[in-house]
Amino acid sequence: MAVRLEIIARSTTNEARLGRLHTPHGVVETPAFMPVATAGSVKGVWPEQVRQVGSQMILGNAYHLMLRPGAERVAEFGGLHRFMRWDGPILTDSGGYQAFSMSNLLKIDDDGFTFRSIVDGRRIRLDPVSCMRVQNQLGADVAMPLDDCPPAGADRPRVELALERTRRWLAACVESHARREDQALFGIVQGGTHPELRARSLAEVVAFDLPGYAIGGVAVGEGTAEIHRTVAETAPQLPADRPRYLMGVGYERDIVAAVAAGVDLFDCVLPTRSGRNARVFTRAGALNLRNAIHARDSRPIEEGCDCPGCAGGFSRAYLRHLFAAGEMLGPTIASVHNLRHYQRLLLDIRQAIKQDAWSCLETAWPVLAAASEGSADRPADPSSD
Amino acid sequence: MAVRLEIIARSTTNEARLGRLHTPHGVVETPAFMPVATAGSVKGVWPEQVRQVGSQMILGNAYHLMLRPGAERVAEFGGLHRFMRWDGPILTDSGGYQAFSMSNLLKIDDDGFTFRSIVDGRRIRLDPVSCMRVQNQLGADVAMPLDDCPPAGADRPRVELALERTRRWLAACVESHARREDQALFGIVQGGTHPELRARSLAEVVAFDLPGYAIGGVAVGEGTAEIHRTVAETAPQLPADRPRYLMGVGYERDIVAAVAAGVDLFDCVLPTRSGRNARVFTRAGALNLRNAIHARDSRPIEEGCDCPGCAGGFSRAYLRHLFAAGEMLGPTIASVHNLRHYQRLLLDIRQAIKQDAWSCLETAWPVLAAASEGSADRPADPSSD
Q: What's A372's DSSP letter?
């Protein structure tokens, strides 16, 4: 198998595991958070800085890259790693979620999606075969199968249809996957918020004996409590020796809850998308740097933070000025800080598992005990930035 | 005097001099190019990167900073160096050029400018006293006096009026300058393209015995030949032991011609403004990264360039993709490359003076021999980005 999870330690108080994910492009310490490089760049951040803040693996969006510059073009350059100058592991999603959610969907049928390109209006067909061709060309360490991910409000017959499609599409993806030696294809469990549909999907997907499994269809509009319940019910049922990836989630408390349920891999646009919008994270909660309260504040975003922004001495007042003046450096510094925030959380999570001291996390991260954020606050598309 | 020029070597073939400008924030090797940090940031570039590409001194715009966040606010933070986290030398311009050129000028009279703030529409008065107050608060190593800089097409009576105002305003600026110990006030020579008015202005300004002199009113709409002639006639007449600064100029050939005329300091928005617009400089000339010709080009912007973009292996094809996709990293990488391009030119210029081998410059920089660029191509406001 192209990737392999080595488990190093387990929490005695919950399902959390500490591991090392071995990939063709190196090892990733898990639980791990993958910054999102939608179109071949983590927005506003140099690859070197992405690594400096502690990222070991990133996510690319097949949807965006297939439309521009095109997967064949990326393949000509030796694949996504070489094209974007990231030599660590990469995971690409299938493009299905964006085809569905980016509102130019023309048709979804039993064999795939038809949509108009957001770049040039071309009519595009995305089915299991083309989805795998694109991802084989991009050459990420982990590829994801095409799946049908209905929104949170979908009724039960729609979710059951999604399950059936997801299973058949997965079979077709496995069949047409051309790079099994150096590219792992994960399975995706769907089933919305219905426990018995989740269980059915899980059994069907696990039957394929894949190198890793993802929980999809989470944080697509439902509330925080539902997210946590679904993950807590699903993750522990996945094979213990394979990596578990929770797609597009989320806030700090969502990640901590999912790790406690046994999840190993995460991605989310929140650090970069929030950063571009002047929203910065601290252990005590988020701040909006546009607020007037910061205009005379000489403190860094967070005291003691070792990110290049805080350690570099940029004050909240200066950052507020950059956002007010529309200076690119504001979004850049805020994004780098937020990425470091997430990677520090994951560092502390790994430390808590290693020392089997899970309860210490909430002391160091007051934001975990803060009031729940509503689903309205979640990014509409949490996996493409 | 707050700054002092130490001359180390002179060319035997022209007026070029190699020097060290001693300032309260360290030494600058001259001839030197100052990147423009209009609103307290070199657009899209971390201060650390500004230094990494070889910049030793930068320029800030009093006009933009007085409007937002306000010079008092910057002073509360210990001045512009500390506010923007640049610990090297800084020069601030007076704000007069922007007050005049940014098209919301309400009135120019014999005592100063009245204009509307581009930030909030407030009516603002800029006169010698407020200009010096603002720059004293910003605390740059070099401050510039308020001057009257008419556009290239101005008739002779208008230029003569500008000379008279520039002289009187300089006297008022010298009078109200409150930080002579740690902030040098330069004089500005005006006079448009009229040799005898330039000579008159020069005599009047030099009579103030200031720590440095600037040539203003160049590259304000006239052609390349006029720019070179004016500089060649003016620079050598300035006191040999004081730094000479050519404001807002320009292309590589303009800089080389001005150094040959004895100029020591330069600033221009070209590296960053062009970079944001996908225009990148090479020794052989500029490229537009948006052009389709780059779509399959695996070469860096310039072979052998040691900037973080070229040395980092980012291909022209990847950069074109970033610009096409509207990714912030494109403008950032292009700006950093262009800044390095300018600093490498200045490095080579200093080397050519040191080795007294001026003629070698054109061999290493074919762009210097290329056809002249028209004035239409010059930035409308070359000193605020």
A: P
State the virtual CA torsion across A98, A103, A104, A110 in degrees, nearest 10.
70
**Which are the contacts of A61, defined by CB distance < 8 A and separation ≥ 6?**
A36, A37, A38, A39, A92, A93, A95, A98, A383, A384
Pick from B85, B317, B327: which is nearest to A39 by CB?
B327
Distance CA B145, CA B166 (A): 8
For residue A371, the model assigns a pLDDT of 66
Residue A233 near residue A215, CB atoms below 8 Å: no
Alpha helices in B93-251 (DSSP H): 96-101, 128-138, 156-176, 195-206, 224-234
Is there a contact between B77 and A39 if contact means CB atoms under 8 Å apart? no
Predicted local confidence at residue B383, as pLDDT? 82
Residue bearing tokens 């103030």: B208
Between chains, do A295 and B69 touch, taking CB under 8 Å as contact?
A: yes
Identity (one letter) of the amino acid at A66?
Answer: M
**CATH number assigned to the domain covering B4-267:** 3.20.20.105
Residue A329 contacts B where some CB pair is shorter than 8 Å: yes
Q: Is the pLDDT of residue A373 over 60?
A: no
Query: Which residues 285-314 of chain A have a CB within 8 Å of chain B?
Result: 295-296, 298, 308, 312-314
Return the residue of B nearest to A321 by Cα: B69
- pLDDT tens by residue, B204-243: 999 999 999 999 999 988 899 999 999 999 999 999 999 9
The pLDDT of residue A269 is above 80? yes
| Active site (annotated) includes residue B267 | yes
| Rounded-to-integer distance, Cα A330 and Cα A321, Å | 8
Whether B93 is a known active-site residue: answer yes
The A residues from 70 to 89 touching B (CB cutoff 8 Å) are 73, 76-77, 83-85
Domain locations in chain A as residue ranges: 4-274+371-377
Q: What is the pLDDT of residue A103?
A: 61
Cβ <8 Å between A332 and B46: yes
Strand, helix or coil at A374? coil
The whole-angstrom separation of Cα A266 and Cα A35 is: 9
Q: How confident is the model at residue A311 (pLDDT cuts 50, 70, 90)?
A: very high
Q: In whole angstroms, give the CA distance from residue B259 to residue B353.
A: 10
Cα–Cα distance between B363 and B368 in angstroms, integer?
9
Q: Which residues pair with A114 in a beta bridge?
A: A107, A125
CA distance A353 to A291: 37
Are A147 and A218 in contact by the 8 Å Cβ rule? The answer is no
Question: Tokens representing A264?
Answer: 């190993």
A95 part of contact set with chain B, CB < 8 Å:
no
Rounded (10°) angle between helices A156-176 and A195-206: 10
At residue A281, the pLDDT reads 98
What CATH number has the domain spanning A4-274+371-377? 3.20.20.105
The ipTM of this complex is: 0.97
Q: Is the pLDDT of residue A346 over 80?
A: yes
Of A43, A314, A317, the CB nearest to B85: A314
Residue ranges in chain B whose pLDDT is less than 50: none
Cβ neighbours of A225 (radius 10 Å): 9
Neighbours of A292 (CB within 10 A): 8
Residues of B in contact with A45 (CB under 8 A): 329
Any chain B CB within 8 A of the CB of A322? yes
Whether residue A377 has pLDDT greater than 80: no
- Give the pLDDT of residue A328: 98
pLDDT digits (tens, 9 = 90+) for A168-216: 999 999 999 999 999 999 999 999 999 999 999 999 999 999 999 999 9
CA torsion, points A185, A186, A190, A195, in degrees to nearest 10? 150
- The predicted pLDDT at position B374 comes to 52
Average pLDDT over residues A51-69: 97
Could B40 and A312 be called an inter-chain contact, meaning their C-beta atoms sit closer than 8 Å? no
